[in-house]
Amino acid sequence: MNDKLMLMIPGPTPVPEAALLALAKHPIGHRTSEFSNILAEVTENLKWLHQTQTDVLTLNVSGTGAVEAGIINFLSPGDRILVGSNGKFGERWVEVGQAYGLNVEEVKVEWGKPLDPAVFAEKLQADTQKQIKAVIITHSETSTGVLNDLESINRHVKAHGEALIIVDAVTSLGAFNLPVDAWGLDIVASGSQKGYMIPPGLGFVSVSPKAWEAYKTAKLPKYYLDLGKYRKATAKNTTPFTPPVNLIVALHTTLRIMKEEGLESIFARHERLKNATRAAIQGLNLPLFAADSSASPAITAVAPQGIESDKIRSLMKKRFDIALAGGQDHLSNKIFRIGHLGFVSDRDILSCIASLEVTLTELGYEDFTPGSGIAAAVKVFSQS
After folding, report:
1. Contact 155/171 with Cβ under 8 angstroms?
2. Going by fewer Cβ within 10 Å, which terminus of the chain is more open, N or C?
3. Phi-psi region of 11 (alpha: psi -120 to 50; beta: other; left: phi over 0)
4. CATH of segment(s) 17-260
5. Domain spans of the chain, in order of start
6. Is residue 348 pLDDT above 80, yes or no?
7. Could you tell me which residues come within 8 angstroms of residue 306 by beta carbon, excluding any fewer than 6 positions away?
8. Which pLDDT score is estimated for 147?
């Protein structure tokens, strides 16, 4: 059946009908008072979502662009930085740092395992000359479904005193409690096609007062991603360059939806969806790729044995028009990933798991009792 696509991937994520209708409106001028009023409310609601009173800036980029902006605005060539790397996106920030001539020290862990805060503590404590200028952490490592212990790592960064904490929160912001001010996070980057529940095209960067001090002496090249330009424009409820007007109008809608639901309810919903999905996968006797203690609220990675992940994904798409994500790099065809981020409900998880049970049966996988996945998910939902 056409037009029944169900996105169960880490991004883009499903979009509420109200936001789709906002996208369908005629564009308005981005230098008009009407747009300025919309942008002013969007900025205030972004601060609410970030739990901060500091600047939250909206850029015309994807999540990668937001993180890159968060790196290049506050550092200078040759600066020493620590980068946590336990998946595809941690590796990406290593590459970005190297591309800009930074002295990158990679804190590497096997994919599927969480970063060890003790390693960061050791390196930061040993830096008595305060040469480490930043620590970059991917909070929710989308490629593996691992949630890193940002709060603990950040405590060690704060004890260092000099280094900035730069956070890739692309698939954690809006899904997990991330109190920017309470934790003292310096730079937090995210993207619109995740927890924000709108299509790709916008990136967001929150910036602390400490980071703005570093900005004054940072010497890496920048122009379009110069956050100083965005700060000045945002203060006047405008933008430095032409924005994707309708995306911001749609964001205006989804942030209102999120405020109506409330932060605690949003975080609880994502936790419930995570727990139900993981219980269902265990009920189907399929191995989970990440441990319960470090499982991301945004994505669940599954490592089936004796059956190719890509065959599961292909049949799910063909038979039920449900899109699952595959593995990346060396995990290609080794894992599949079920997204439960953003505009996702209990019903979506039940539909996905039921369809997965049929798919597994048709592919000849018999190591489960029909209905066991659904039963496990229902048990979680009934107790939540």
Report:
1. no
2. N
3. left
4. 3.40.640.10
5. 6-12+262-383, 17-260
6. yes
7. 365
8. 98
Question: Is residue 104 a contact partner of residue 97, using CB atoms and an 8 Å limit?
Answer: yes
Whether residue 37 is predicted with pLDDT greater than 90 in this model: the reply is: yes
Residue 383 contacts by C-beta under 8 Å, 6 or more apart in sequence?
none
Task: Summarize the annotated binding site as residue ranges.
Answer: 337
Q: Detail the residues annotated as belonging to a binding site for substrate.
A: 337
Which residue type is seen at 44? E
Place of tokens 């000099």: 162
For 232, the token pair is: 């000045």
What are the DSSP calls for 211-233, one per residue?
A: HHHHHTT--S--STT-HHHHHHH
The answer to whether residues 98 and 76 touch, using CB atoms and an 8 Å cutoff, is: no
Cα–Cα distances (Å) from 241 to 22, 46, 226, 244, in that order, read: 21, 19, 11, 10
pLDDT at 90 over 90: yes
pLDDT at 1 over 80: no
CATH number for region 6-12+262-383: 3.90.1150.10
Q: What is the rounded average pLDDT for all residues in the chain?
A: 97
Report d(CA 123, CA 365) in Å as an integer: 47
pTM of the predicted structure, to 2 decimals: 0.97
The residue with tokens 């929160």 is 169
Band (384; pLDDT cuts 50, 70, 90): confident
Count Cα neighbours of 274 within 13 Å in the Cβ-side half-sphere.
Answer: 27
Q: What angle do CA 10, 15, 20 make, to 5 degrees?
A: 150
Cβ(294)–Cβ(110) below 8 Å: no
- pLDDT tens-digit profile of 172-231? 999 999 999 999 999 999 999 999 999 999 999 999 999 999 999 999 999 999 999 999
Phi, psi (5° rounding) for residue 140?
Answer: -110, 105
* Percent of the chain with pLDDT strictly greater than 70: 100
